[in-house]
Amino acid sequence: MKVLYFAWLRERLNRDEQQLSPPAKVTNIAQLMDWMSENDEAIALAFANRDLIKTALDEEIVEHDTALNGARTVAFFPPMTGG
Amino acid sequence: MAVNVRLQMAVFDPGKESNAFIKATNEDGSAGAAITFTGLVRSSPEKPIISLTLEHYPPVAEAQLRRFAQSALERFDLLAIAIIHRFGEMKPGEPIVQVMTLASHRHAAFAGAEFVMDFLKTDAPFWKKGLSASWVAAKSHDETARKRWQ
Question: B23: burial class by Cβ within 10 Å (0-12, 13-18, 19+)?
Answer without folding.
Answer: exposed
